[in-house]
From TrEMBL:
Keywords: ATP-binding, Hydrolase, Nucleotide-binding. The keyword rRNA-binding does not apply. Residues 1-29 form the Carboxyltransferase domain. InterPro entries: CT_C_D, Cyclophilin-like_dom_sf. This is Allophanate hydrolase subunit 2.
Amino acid sequence: MYMCIYGMDSPGGYQLVGRTLPIWNKYLKNSQFSTGQPWLLRFFDQVRFYPVSEQELEQQREAFREGAHANPH
């Protein structure tokens, strides 16, 4: 089974499984991104999805944008 993770909101042909934190950051405000590598995921990273409320997702996205997000899982 394959799944595609889009780097930004966009139309596409895959079924939408859910939404995530940003995985692309060309502005490098967040310490999880490094110079020359504005993407969050690396080869062979394992991604795990879990359910959250709309409010929790928005709070996590805001914290991530500010560089204050800590992965709870």
